[in-house]
């Protein structure tokens, strides 16, 4: 396992590219940005905002933002309204009550109180849970299904309301080095084909053993590109146009505007900060399984961004990443098992199946890492 020489990006991240000097794509990308590029992007987003106003929907909204109530969607909503002078409709996809955290509720309420209109999409919780269980067992990633409904809600509402623009946050292929998409890197119309969403394919979700039929999957159906174009819908990464759109600036602005953050130690979530994934504790479970699969989790991602932004040195980051990455409080694992109706023993039988054979060796009952971040 190799790490970027500048940050802590590992070469086990799917699709990540390194240059000859061993520097990862996100580090090189950030380094390539200069004041001319930011001037061009500022002009471009003004043009886009004017286009939104000219193409206002019959319902009166200029654009849609998919909103969880967290730091990024709070920042996006404020940028749209206060900087671009647009009238956004927020679309919030709600997880079942057993899964949503108290601060998750409070943060959506906060957005509402900040003066935004919100449409809430609530998929059938019985189907939602069955899909999560199947996704966890078959792919070691419970969010494979839930991510689809999160992403599908905004374009589905856009079509229903005749709204022509959807704004997303960051372009993940630039920020994290995920699979590359469109040549115009602010354009997200092809987004569904270039990330973990598997082109929006839902055929794997029709599961006879779980009694899930195609008719149960409407909230998970991401409209085809043909349908989006036919309805005149554009999708853009708003974060691409703003120099200070990153996790830290977004958190700072959102907290100033009433965002509630976690009180627990970030170590219990395998993270470094307490302002990410505020509405869902199970994310920590997923990050732990990701650590089994690829040898890195949330802490590595957060530290790499902090190094790029000059908040931490690589040396400082290594120490805290080593301590926190892959950690997950047993409380979250217990809650996850209870929610899915599986025993903790079965949970670990499944999760351990996803440990990479290149990264882990079984030593009696314990698993030993073959990789060592501290030596990188
Ligand atoms: Zn890097």
List the helices and strands and how they pair.
Layout (H helix, E strand, L loop, with lengths): L24 H8 L2 H20 L8 E4 L4 H13 L4 E6 L8 H12 L3 E5 L3 H15 L3 H19 L3 E4 L3 H4 L49 H6 L3 E4 L9 H10 L26 H12 L3 H11 L5 H11 L5 H11 L3 H10 L6 E4 L2 E4 L7
Parallel strand pairs: 1-2, 1-4, 2-3, 4-5
Antiparallel strand pairs: 6-7
Helix pairs in contact: 3-9, 5-6, 11-12
The chain binds zinc ion.
Zinc ion binds next to helix 1.
How would you characterize the overall build of this protein?
This protein has 14 helices and 7 strands. It is α/β, with parallel strands linked by helices and 376 residues long. Strands 3-2-1-4-5 form a 5-stranded parallel sheet, with helices on both faces. Strands 6-7 form a two-stranded antiparallel ribbon. The radius of gyration is 21 Å and the shape is globular. The structure holds zinc ion.
Summarize the structure.
The chain is an alpha/beta fold and 376 residues long.
């Amino acid at each position: 396992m190799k790490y970027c020489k500048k940050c802590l990006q590992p070469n086990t991240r799917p699709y990540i590219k390194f240059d000859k000097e061993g520097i990862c794509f996100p580090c090189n990308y950030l380094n390539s940005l200069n004041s001319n590029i930011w001037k061009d992007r500022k002009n471009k987003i003004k043009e886009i905002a004017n286009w939104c106003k000219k193409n206002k929907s019959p319902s009166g909204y200029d654009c849609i933002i998919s909103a969880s109530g967290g730091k990024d969607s709070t920042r996006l909503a404020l940028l749209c309204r206060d900087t671009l002078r647009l009238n956004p409709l927020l679309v919030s996809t709600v997880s079942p009550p057993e899964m949503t955290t108290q601060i998750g509720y409070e943060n959506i309420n906060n957005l509402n109180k900040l003066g935004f209109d919100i449409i809430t999409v609530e998929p059938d919780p019985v189907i939602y849970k069955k899909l999560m269980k199947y996704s966890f067992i078959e792919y070691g990633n419970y969010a494979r299904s839930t991510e689809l409904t999160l992403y599908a809600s905004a374009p589905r509402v856009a079509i229903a309301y005749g709204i022509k623009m959807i704004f997303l946050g960051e372009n993940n292929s630039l920020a994290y080095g995920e699979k590359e998409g469109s040549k115009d890197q602010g354009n997200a119309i092809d987004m569904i084909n270039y990330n973990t969403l598997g082109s929006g394919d839902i055929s794997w979700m029709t599961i006879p053993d779980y009694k899930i039929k195609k008719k149960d999957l409407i909230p998970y159906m991401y409209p085809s590109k043909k349908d989006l174009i036919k309805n005149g819908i554009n999708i853009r990464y708003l974060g691409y146009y703003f120099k200070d759109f990153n996790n830290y600036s977004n958190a700072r602005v959102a907290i100033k505007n009433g965002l509630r953050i976690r009180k627990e130690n970030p170590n219990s979530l395998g993270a470094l900060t307490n302002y990410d994934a505020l509405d869902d504790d199970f994310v920590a479970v997923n990050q732990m399984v990701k650590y089994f699969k690829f040898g890195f989790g949330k802490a590595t991602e957060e530290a790499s961004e902090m190094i790029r932004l000059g908040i931490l040195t690589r040396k400082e980051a290594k120490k805290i990443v080593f301590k926190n990455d892959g950690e997950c409080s047993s409380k979250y694992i217990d809650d996850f098992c209870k929610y899915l109706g599986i025993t903790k023993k079965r949970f670990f039988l499944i999760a351990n199946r996803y440990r990479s054979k290149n990264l882990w060796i079984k030593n009696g009952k314990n698993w030993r890492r073959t990789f060592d971040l501290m030596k990188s």
